[in-house]
Amino acid sequence: MGISQPQNLTTPPIERLRPYGIRISLPPGDPLRKLLGPEWHRQHWYPTPEERDAALAEMSRRHEYSRAGDKPSIVFQKIEKLAESRGL
User: Fold this and answer.
1) Do 80 and 18 touch, CB atoms closer than 8 A?
2) What is the pLDDT of residues 14-33, one digit of tens each?
3) How many CB atoms lie within 10 A of CB 49?
4) Which of the ends of the chain has fewer CB neighbours closer than 10 A, N or C?
């Protein structure tokens, strides 16, 4: 009996290191903190600083669907896993 889905047997690609990141959080005093909690944050990781910077520019830009007076209250912070980025 043959294998019905041979593509499922291929080995997955080697995961690239992603040492460069963006931490997204809310500023102190933001009303959404009451809902999400004071320590809420998200992290996104990228393999190169260029990819991270491009993603940060896209995340922090004013989107075309925003209303005229809207100003998102999100804090973006560049972060780095030093051991991975330095090869330690």
Assistant:
1) no
2) 667 889 999 999 999 999 99
3) 13
4) N
What would the pLDDT profile of 37-61 be if each residue is shown by its tens digit?
Answer: 999 999 999 999 999 999 999 998 8
Domain boundaries, the chain: 15-60+72-86
DSSP one-letter code for 12:
P
For the four alpha carbons of 27, 28, 34 and 37, in that order, the dihedral sign comes to: positive
User: 52 exposed, middle or buried (CB, 10 Å; 0-12, 13-18, 19+)?
Assistant: buried
Give pTM, 2 decimals: 0.74
Q: Which residues pair with residue 24 across a beta bridge?
A: 42, 76
